[in-house]
Write a structure and sequence with these properties.
single chain; 308 residues; alpha/beta; 8-stranded parallel sheet; two-stranded antiparallel sheet; 9 helices; 16% strand
């Protein structure tokens, strides 16, 4: 069994304005940090419109496509932008997550890391937000449930920002368990513990500014792992944001590379017990380039170890 690395050069054609934290340089630093590792690299295919419409209405997909400029950049909101190539990059991000699910479920790989951009966990049903256009992990989960016949999919989001988009898209989906740990207070301001979903299928774990690895681990051991064990997921999807790193400029948690390795190892162990080890990890945030590349490498090392 192997670990997949799913990416595509088109994801570097999504260009944001100068000084924007979600920039092409993220992949330019992360991907070299993964070179030489025991990975099977494949290209992310483009998703179809039908794929995206598993969670978004067609009218929204049409609007995003039509918003792409012929040149320069256009702002969809204060944080979220498109350039020529952004729509194709977003479709590669969705398609990469779906392809990873397909290959892991087919037994062609034990697990996968999808290194694409733009990220997706802030995109709500009809609203782009927080650098995100489409709900990459929510679409992948719905694909596994509706098209691949799974009954239970867990999504764990350890990005420093609340996964409001994934929560919105899966609020009424009883076959998913969505977990988000995030700094609070912090943008986007959602993610309180009493936001539990229509079927008690959402777990929000707010973390205070300055939280270090010990507090992060305590929260997962007490609030998350028991629920995951009870849920018995048939597939674990990770929203892998590395902006909870102590060096990240957009937030104030104080995790280090060992903390990202630890959570990865724990989630892989849960997947071993309930999901035949099947894990698909999808890149979200991480804006300090050194912290992103080192943390992403530590995360992938644990995926490789679990898949070996």
């Amino acid at each position: 069994m192997t670990t997949l690395l799913v990416t595509h050069d088109d994801c570097s054609h999504h260009v944001t304005p100068p000084g924007h934290p979600e920039r092409v340089a993220r992949l330019e630093h992360l991907l070299p940090a993964l070179e030489g590792k025991a990975l099977t690299r494949i290209e992310a295919p483009e998703a179809s419109e039908e794929d995206v419409c598993l969670v978004h209405p067609k009218s929204y997909v049409d609007w995003v496509r039509g918003s792409e400029p012929a040149e320069g950049t256009v702002s969809l909101d204060a944080d979220t932008h498109m350039s020529p190539g952004s729509y194709k990059a977003a479709m590669r991000a969705v398609g990469g997550a779906i392809r990873a699910v397909d290959m892991v479920l087919a037994g062609e790989a034990q697990n996968a890391f999808v290194a694409t951009r733009p990220p997706g966990h802030h995109a709500e049903t009809e609203t782009p937000m927080g650098f995100c256009l489409f709900g990459n992990v929510a679409i992948a989960a719905k694909h596994a449930l509706d098209r691949k016949g799974l009954s239970r999919v867990a999504i764990v989001d350890f990005d420093v920002h609340h996964g409001n988009g994934t929560q919105d898209l899966l609020w009424s989906e009883a076959r998913t368990l969505f977990v988000s740990s995030h700094q609070m207070p912090l943008w986007p301001g959602t993610g309180a513990p009493d936001e539990r979903g229509a079927h008690d299928n959402i777990i929000n774990v707010p973390l205070a500014p300055g939280t270090v690895g010990e507090g992060f681990r305590y929260a997962y051991e007490g609030q998350v792992f028991p629920r995951l064990e009870e849920f018995k997921p048939e597939l674990v999807i990770i929203s892998a944001g590395f902006d909870a790193h102590k060096a990240d400029p957009l937030a104030n948690l104080s995790l280090v590379e060992d903390d990202f390795a630890w959570i990865t190892q724990k989630l892989c162990a849960i997947a071993d017990r309930h999901a035949d080890g099947r894990v698909v990890s999808v890149l979200e945030g991480g804006y300090d380039l050194g912290g992103l590349s080192r943390s992403g490498a530590a995360h992938v090392d644990e995926l490789i170890r679990a898949g070996g």
